Amino acid sequence: MKIVQTFWTKPGLHGHWPDPVFHYMSWALSCLQLRQFYNQVELYTDHSGAELLHDRFRLPYTGFHLTLNNFPFADYLWSAPKLHTYSLQQESFLHVDGDVFLFRKIPESFIEKHDVVCQNLEIDRSGNKGFYAEILKTLFAVRPQHTFPGWLASARLNDLCAMNAGIMGGSNISFFQRYTRKAFTFLTGHDAVFSQLEDPQYMTHLAEQVLPGAMMRNENISLGTLLSPDLYPGLIMPDTNEAINEDHFAKQPLPFKYLKLDEHGLSPSGRKYAHVMGSRKWSLATCKQLARRLKKDYPDVYERVLRHASTKQYAVTGKKMPATFVEKIGQIPPEKAFRRSVRMAAVCGAAVPSSGSVDAFEQAMLSETNKLGSLARQKMEDVLRFEAERIRTARSWTAELLRQHDSDCLASQDLITDETALKAAGIWLEMNPQGKRVVTQWNWLNSRELGPPNPLRIRHQVVLLPESITHSLIEIGLSPVQLRLINILETAGAPCEASALCRAAADAGETPETAIFKALVFLVANGVLLASKFPNRPTPLSQSALLQPGKSIHATRYEPVE
């Protein structure tokens, strides 16, 4: 089976990740996981892409094709090079995006027995509010619908079908030849229309994903999907064959359910197929999991990526990475370090001071906050203190602490695979000493809180953790079940045996054991808790000992201002 990928460097090297280094790690992990299962994995790219992935990172592609040098398309048409790769295939194939990670093999037989294979169908019957309906409405506002090719001219906003191309391939090469010809006719014949759109990049969704969905409806082709369809309002699920059944997800998932990793994160113990697309790439927690997975399973490649990130060439194409958190804070303008406070100030009518040092900015903002009314002042003080605590915590993370943190988190990975292993393996848990727990009155992880002052104040708990590659700070919001586990563990004041901790948490509240297990795995996968094996540890603390009342020693609490 021929597996192909497409890497086009013209749009830049960030790939919509927070930093190019994670884009590189994504490509590395995607390729290396594919090579775990397939002997033929080839890359279609340009000269710069080959130099990066082949010469610098030495990724084990079995073939490199320089088909994208001087590729004559605008960089916002990001799917055009993928369509070009589809058009070049002469045998059964599967194209896999560079932000897709396989932890289980997709059988060759599944691909070869279907005309077309894609990640999943996306069917939009919303009429006017769905993702694809919005794209078409915007396009048809510029040019009448009937003037477009037949597959668009006949499109109905209340009955749209698209193929998500996280993976795309199959055995019907004739179909892919027709499909790509129509796609390029659309992209090259309407560039004047695209230039009038505010977001012309969405036209690639039509060419790559809506077009084959329309063709599928009009042709007698066999379709295989990896996952269940995305369900939009009014969907009647079509009859498709699924290759990977993610049993721990609902049979009828919510829209874009495949975006969500499970409690294990990027792990062989978690989802067997992960597509980190869209805004998911901007999650620093996801970036951290990506880095840890690459470092644990492919340490040599991980080191090559980091060495490249420290070179002058990287600074030309990306940005110079800071050496410490203190240096990073010194590079950030105060209004960015306090971005949520600045947004709240605009809502509350507080003046925003001119830029100075971070500390001076904080004091000036507090002074302005004192001029506000009671409720607005409480909310402004809450967000200011939260963001100030972020800065103080980041400054405390020295290089030595970060090295120990990364080592501890790496050792914790993959110790907890399932509930059976948890009970049998004798795994011990403790709090990550580099995690800082903060309690606020409002949930500042939710952007909707950055609105007019409201009296609803519920204590929210967040753990602040370091992301050491880019010296950034990760915010992990805690659910009630996760918080219960942490409180019991902190009360014990010493490492606890994991299965005993789960039993104690179950006894402390009416929560199913499976939910407690998932909460525990999430905390370990994200570095809030550290897991280890101590075969010679003394007898675990009893459940009654774990449940003795005590006070958390790690939380900074902000009491409401009266």
UniProtKB/TrEMBL annotation:
Pfam families for the chain: DUF6734
- InterPro entries from the UniProt entry: DUF6734
Location of the DUF6734 domain: 1-307
Name of the protein this chain belongs to: DUF6734 domain-containing protein
